[in-house]
Design a protein that fits this description.
The structure is a single chain. The chain has about 375 residues and is α+β, with helices and mostly antiparallel strands. The chain has one domain. About 35% of the residues lie in helices and about 10% in strands. A three-stranded antiparallel beta sheet has the order 2-3-4. A three-stranded antiparallel beta sheet has the order 5-6-8. A two-stranded antiparallel sheet has the order 1-7. Helix 3 crosses helix 4 and helix 5 crosses helix 11. It starts with 9 loop residues before the first helix and ends in a 25-residue tail after the last helix. It comes from Aspergillus eucalypticola (strain CBS 122712 / IBT 29274). This is HNH nuclease domain-containing protein.
Length: about 375
């Protein structure tokens, strides 16, 4: 049976108990809590070994469990969302796709075809025309312009329809690894990858990097999906996630699983030893957003299987299995800590709350550390 919490094994629970005992850290913020319960188990074994070693690296492990709100800021960047309530162009890195010629869609699940007040124009504007005011704002910096070739390939591959709902309009060509993340400076980008390196082994990090840091960066069909506006918006808010299941050996089909995710609020600390709640039977988002298959009118529930196909895996490659796996891990972490819904003000409040913590919950002392224990060697 499919599980949204396959990582929550008995071994992991025992390792976390040992980690809690050796560091004397009993309560952690929700972001670190989610990372610990979803991270690579070999990395977790390494944390426990260092925590139990009695060496200076033991204190570094304890400090890393108290990393603070900047972890949530990195997750917000991953979701490609703004950090201010006044910013409303949350999907500015995505432009609407024009409908493709109707074709037989691949088996999938979908959404009720309700009209949207922000439905994009059905035709592409010429270069001399101004964009329609109903369109999502485009990036105007020439250095950030999207690759039309990659978008066209992804749209043709997905038959111009949302791969989840089979809705034909309005649809967007959406990034798995956010376009905005690909434009970050070296230092900002390194901080994000250093965070991931604290919870996944070097070989996994390299697999993820290899699939995104090529000559075309984020602008390649392997990093793009056709999604309806509502599915894309819910995905960007960590209300749903896609679990990669299997890629065919010949690259002509990719099986993914759809999951609704629970909601939570950032504030507050949770017991490290108690696993987060990831219900496997959700039928809607936390605020009751629901989706339907536009071909069958069947509702879409957690655990639904979706099969993406391509007639030419070379010219029209399917989405990257590795990038979808990265998305699967980080979107669940973001949902479990409420990263999508926090503002800068919320994070500042969280910073102030950290200053008031009692030493009984953290006996190692010292200033708040980076989530990366510098004294710990990276996991191979």
């Amino acid at each position: 049976m499919a599980s949204i919490e396959a990582e929550f094994t008995e071994e992991r629970a025992m390792l976390i108990q040992r980690l809690m005992k050796s560091t004397n850290v009993h309560l952690v913020d929700k972001a670190n809590h989610a990372f610990i319960w979803l991270c690579d188990v070999e990395v977790l074994r390494g944390m426990v070994r260092h925590a139990e070693s009695g060496t200076p690296s033991a204190s570094q492990v304890a400090l890393s469990l108290r990393a603070g709100p900047h972890v949530v800021k990195q997750l917000k960047s991953w979701l490609a969302r703004r950090t201010s309530k006044s910013d409303t162009d949350e999907a500015a890195d995505v432009e609407p796709a024009t409908p493709a010629t109707p074709s037989t869609p691949t088996p999938a699940t979908g959404e009720s075809p309700q009209p949207s007040p922000t439905t994009p124009s059905k035709r592409k504007a010429s270069k001399s025309e101004s964009p329609s005011p109903t369109k999502i704002p485009r990036v105007t910096n020439p250095g950030l312009q999207r690759s039309k070739t990659a978008e066209d390939i992804a749209k043709a591959r997905d038959n111009g329809r949302c791969v989840v709902t089979q809705m034909g309009e309005p649809v967007q060509i959406c990034h798995i690894y956010p376009h905005s993340m690909g434009e970050k400076t070296g230092g900002e980008r390194d901080e994000f990858w250093m965070l991931l390196q604290a919870f996944w082994p070097v070989n996994k990090i390299e697999q993820w990097k290899n699939d995104i840091f090529g000559p075309k960066g984020t602008e390649m069909p392997q990093n793009l999906l056709c999604l309806s506006n509502i599915v894309h918006d819910l995905w960007g808010k960590a209300r749903l996630a896609f679990e990669p299941v299997e890629m065919a050996a010949d690259g002509t089909s990719l099986t993914i699983r759809f999951w609704w995710l629970p909601g939570t609020k950032l504030h507050g600390r949770v017991a490290l030893c108690v696993p987060p709640s990831l219900p496997a039977s959700l039928k809607a988002s936390p605020l009751n957003a629901k989706l339907w298959n536009c071909e069958t009118d069947a509702p879409i529930y957690s655990g639904e299987t979706i099969i993406l196909t391509t007639t030419d895996p070379v010219a029209m490659p399917l989405p990257s299995f590795e990038l979808l796996h990265m998305q699967w891990m980080l979107t669940r972490v973001a949902a479990l800590c409420g990263a999508a819904d926090v503002t800068d003000e919320d994070l500042e409040d969280e910073d102030l709350g950290d200053e008031d913590l009692e030493d009984e919950d953290f006996q190692s002392g010292g200033e708040m550390a980076s989530p990366i224990p510098e004294a710990l060697p990276p996991q191979a």
